[in-house]
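haha ok so turns out i had the wrong file open the whole time. this is the CORRECT one, sorry everyone. sequence first:
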Amino acid sequence: METMAIEQLIQQMIKEKHITPRQKWCWRWGKTSQECKALFTRIFMQVDDTIDDFVWLPEYDQIVDWMTNTNDKGLMLMGDCGRGKSLILNYVLPVLFRLHERNVRPVHAQDLGRLFPNSLCNETYLDRLLRTSFPIIDEVGVEPMMNDYGEKTEGLNMILNAAERYHRPVFISTNLTELQLLDRYGERTVDRLAHLCRTVHFKGDSLRK
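then structure:
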């Protein structure tokens, strides 16, 4: 079969929704790291009026590097408390996505099993995350086990399964260490997180007053 015929066949199957194309996700928010750093700082300071003196942390450099080219990766922000992980996930990221004309809704891990507001079919936050193109989960590790048709399972595993299947970047924050993630979720999940996310380690004293 000729190459052109193969290409036409694939396009037809995509149109008929028999297969879903897997495309590399590469966004940027500036041509240089300086532009991305300025944007990150501006957003960070404007979404949190409680900040008196903005302190640039070393881990933010990695966020800026990701902003210059997402390189087909989401973000896993992990490590010590009080250094901006949740603020970045819940406030900075939604603004960055809106700049690309995409709306995202971060979900706290504790809410995975709760009903989505005004849901007409008992849809949970987990159900929404299983469908969204950009799942964002804050404080992974505090959520309870989920009941999936009578069987106990981890909601994060279900989200990552869907993300891997449909080639979606994933965004999470967690206070767990790599070993704690491995103990709770298993080797397969840790491997998928490494594939779907760029890991940024937050280390140091809390900046909360």
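Helices lie at 3-15, 33-46, 58-68, 85-99, 125-131, 155-166, 178-185, 187-196.
again sry for the mixup
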